[in-house]
Amino acid sequence: MRRTHPLHIVSGLLLCLCLLAATARADDGGVALAVKPGDIVIGTAYTGTTLHFSGEAPRGSAIVARFTGASGDLALRQKGKAFGLLWMNMGTVHLHDVPSVYLVASSRPLADIGGTGLGLDAVRAGVQQEGGAAAQGPDGLDALDVPAELVRLKQHDGLYREGVGGITVTDDGTFSAELAIPSRMSPGTYTVEVFALRDGQVAGSTSAPVRAELVGAPAWLAHMAFDRGLLYGVLATLVAILAGLAVGLVFQSKGAH
Asked: What is the model's pTM?
């Protein structure tokens, strides 16, 4: 009779435990996530990029991927007609908790999977409004939904987006996704989040940071503007003067002919 080596028994037990752990993660709400690239490099030729996600979620889940920037305050000028004749600044509307970037993609429509709280409607509901003519309500301006208008403006700029597609989910819970990142990005740390939704509830979620950084000429210009403001101003003035002289010479040479 062949005896089993104790080391083989231990190895077999460890393998079984690993398999049980993986199964528990997939069934009990764990979500694994890998993001490529881990950093967004913003150089002179940067026109946007694509983030690639992959991972594992509980079986039978719909997947929602979200890319967000830090929230902050925003001040908007309220325009209106004074005495019904002249367009003037009627006040300032201060908005709080405004995400700089908010991109959402889902494997199925958010309304069908109970994920409306993860989309742009949640952004509009979360923005806090203070002051301004629209908040005070004279001249019938109280009907203007400033947070909703802000969301539409950000959508037009490509900084806010909500859509269906770009996500593949298999029967065993593995998923892959692509999310287009806009060209109008500021340096800083952003957050990638993945939510697994099942039966109208969030069955699991995870997140990972993604850093956007300037390189090359954009990084040098930013350094000059923020750290050496006087020198940056002098150089900008010289560039403007040289550009004006160049344009004048071009038109003068055309006039001579």
From this structure: 0.71
